[in-house]
């Protein structure tokens, strides 16, 4: 698992419990991801919360066209937005859930998952009650 | 405010698939229809604006229409191409630069078009590679949340599509001309939950041309004219939720549709209650539902009753998408917004035939919305 390379550099922190990296604008608002080029100049990188709530979700039932490059044969997946309280709402894959499990407002937690044989991407999963 | 501007001619090339004609040839066809409708010749046009998203430059059309030296400005503004051409043509006449102007939009998209490239939208490659950059996802994510917050049922999504296909059967420029029943719509394969395949419009082909004229010219010609009460378009404000957004501001913000709608009503000096019929962007069923509220026609959640009672049917209290909208006509990007204006022209002139809105409609409202978050509204008054 740890052998998988991130799908892109700078998306999440390299620590035992990784966090997404956002960018704080001078007006205080946080965006994700950190933009490239001149747009990044006035921004301050900020590690985001690992916990949030489900803002919306949908299924991806058919294989997207290029530039999608996921593993074949295509496996349907879940997509959603997770609100990180007081920070930002991020778009993400949703894992370890079926559509019937999902309810807007439910607690979610950050995780890193395999994207294909050699790369990892980020996702959120429902946070199970202990 | 400057002087009033009117539409005196409207032409359309049927939407759908026409393998034998290029997109631009469909545009030429529509221009000729609009000129015929206005009783004018191509040499009478003093200024022209037009464009397409994927079918080439509009000004090449002079090869077929005639080399009259007319100033012709190509418009390329994505989903607002048609609306931008209309705005520009209206401004040219209102400013007194000319008395007769053309606005034309056309397009031709292959089956399954619209795969966006991240770099063109200023987004990183991983966003597309991991399967997050799909317009259909955006619409599903937006309506999914809206349904949960405002109590909209899956059945209502189906009723919107059923109405679109029913209206399409009555419309000679529509692509989908067969009815589809509610159960078939609701039980069809899901594209992105909660939307099934019958709830999405498809890329298509088609063209629309409008001839605009000054008040002076309308009097001179004795034209069958409809007044443009207002045209407004807006790009996205801070905090709006739009297609291709890796992140959104907590707490939300404004919406381009709300801003364009408010500006158009204010300019026209009327309100939603004065509108006789509306053409609202229905990229998918949920979009029509949300746009009913964003354009001020009802409160969030009231759509459930509207659809159950048939208030947006032809013959209802405020008919919506009387030609079947994008769902029945398909979406040739450059032409789609002008199709809505064309349909309002047809209805306000009482030429709707089997789909004519009863009781002599006086005010027609049209609203187009597209990536990356822009809306154009036009209000016509008879």
Structure explained in plain terms:
Chain A is mainly β. Chain A is built from no helices and nine strands. Chain A has one domain (5-126). Chain A has a five-stranded mixed barrel. In chain A, 32% of the residues are buried. The model of chain A has no long low-confidence stretch (mean pLDDT 94). Chain B is of the alpha/beta class and 382 residues long. Chain B has a single domain, classed as Thiolase/Chalcone synthase (Peroxisomal Thiolase, Chain A, domain 1, 3-Layer(aba) Sandwich), CATH 3.40.47.10. In chain B, the strands form two sheets. A nine-stranded mixed beta sheet of chain B has the order 3-2-4-7-1-8-12-11-10. In chain B, helix 2 links the parallel strand 2 (47-51) and strand 3. In chain B, helix 3 packs across helix 13 (333-348) and helix 6 (154-168) packs across helix 10 (285-294). The longest helix of chain B is centred in the N-terminal third of the chain and has 16 residues, at 23-38. Strand 7 of chain A pairs antiparallel with strand 9 (247-248) of chain B, so a sheet runs across the interface.
Brief digest:
The complex is a heterodimer of chains A (130) and B (382). With 130 residues, chain A is mainly β.
Helix content of chain B: 25-40%
What string gives the helices and strands of chain A in order?
EEEEEEEEE
Number of β-strand runs of chain B: 12
Strand content of chain A: 35-45%
Topology:
The complex is a heterodimer of chains A (130) and B (382).
Chain A: E1 5-6, E2 21-24, E3 30-31, E4 44-47, E5 51-60, E6 77-84, E7 88-94, E8 107-114, E9 119-126
Parallel strand pairs in A: 1-9, 7-9
Antiparallel strand pairs in A: 2-3, 2-4, 5-6, 5-8, 6-7, 8-9
Chain B: E1 5-16, H1 23-38, E2 47-51, H2 62-65, E3 72-74, H3 81-94, E4 100-108, H4 125-129, H5 135-150, H6 154-168, H7 182-187, E5 190-192, E6 195-196, E7 205-214, H8 215-221, E8 226-235, E9 247-248, H9 256-268, E10 277-280, H10 285-294, H11 303-309, H12 325-329, H13 333-348, E11 363-370, E12 374-381
Parallel strand pairs in B: 2-3, 2-4, 10-11
Antiparallel strand pairs in B: 1-7, 1-8, 4-7, 5-6, 8-12, 11-12
Helix pairs in contact in B: 3-13, 6-10
């Amino acid at each position: 698992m740890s052998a998988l390379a991130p799908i892109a550099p700078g998306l999440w922190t390299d620590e035992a419990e990784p966090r997404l990296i956002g960018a704080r604008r001078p007006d205080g608002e946080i965006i994700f991801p950190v933009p490239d080029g001149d747009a990044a100049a006035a921004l301050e990188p900020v590690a985001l919360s690992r916990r949030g709530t489900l803002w919306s979700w949908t299924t991806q039932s058919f294989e997207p066209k290029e530039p999608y490059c996921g593993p074949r044969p295509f496996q349907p997946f879940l997509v959603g937005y997770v609100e990180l309280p007081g920070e930002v709402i991020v778009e993400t894959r949703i894992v370890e859930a079926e559509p019937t499990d999902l309810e807007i407002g439910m607690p979610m937690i950050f995780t890193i998952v395999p994207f294909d044989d050699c790369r990892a991407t980020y996702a959120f999963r429902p946070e199970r009650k202990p | 405010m400057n002087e009033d501007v009117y539409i005196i001619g409207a032409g359309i090339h049927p939407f759908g698939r026409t393998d034998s004609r290029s997109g631009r040839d469909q545009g030429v066809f529509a221009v000729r229809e609009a000129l015929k409708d206005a009783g004018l010749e191509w040499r009478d046009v003093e200024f022209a604006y037009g464009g397409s998203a994927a079918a080439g430059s509009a000004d090449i059309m002079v090869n077929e229409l005639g080399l009259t030296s007319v100033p012709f400005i190509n418009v390329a503004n994505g989903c607002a191409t048609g609306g931008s051409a209309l705005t520009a043509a209206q401004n040219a006449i209102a400013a007194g630069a000319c008395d007769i102007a053309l606005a034309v939009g056309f397009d031709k998209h292959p089956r399954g078009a619209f795969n966006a490239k991240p770099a063109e939208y200023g987004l990183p490659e991983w966003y597309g590679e991991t399967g997050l950059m799909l317009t259909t996802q955006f619409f599903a994510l937006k309506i999914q949340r809206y349904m949960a917050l405002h109590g909209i049922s899956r059945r209502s999504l189906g009723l919107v599509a059923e109405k679109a296909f029913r209206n399409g059967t009555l419309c000679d420029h529509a692509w989908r001309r067969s009815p589809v029943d509610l159960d078939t719509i609701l039980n069809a394969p899901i594209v992105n939950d909660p939307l099934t395949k019958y709830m999405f419009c498809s890329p298509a082909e088609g063209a629309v041309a409008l001839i605009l004229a000054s008040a002076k010219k309308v009097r001179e010609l004795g034209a069958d004219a409809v007044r443009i009460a207002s045209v407004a378009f807006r790009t996205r404000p801070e905090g709006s939720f739009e297609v291709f957004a890796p992140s959104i501001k907590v707490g939300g913000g404004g919406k381009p549709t709300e801003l364009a709608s408010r500006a158009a009503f204010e300019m026209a000096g009327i309100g939603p209650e004065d509108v006789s019929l509306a053409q609202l962007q229905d990229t998918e069923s949920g979009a029509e539902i949300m746009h009913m509220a964003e354009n001020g026609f009802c409160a969030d959640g009231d759509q459930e009753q509207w659809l159950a009672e048939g208030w947006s049917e032809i013959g209802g209290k405020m008919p919506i998408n009387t030609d079947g909208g994008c769902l029945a006509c398909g979406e040739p990007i450059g032409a789609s917004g002008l199709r809505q204006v064309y349909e309002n022209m047809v209805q306000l002139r009482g030429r709707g035939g089997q789909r004519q809105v009863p009781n002599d409609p006086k005010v027609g409202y049209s609203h187009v919305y597209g990536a990356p978050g822009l809306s154009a509204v036009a209000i016509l008054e008879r």
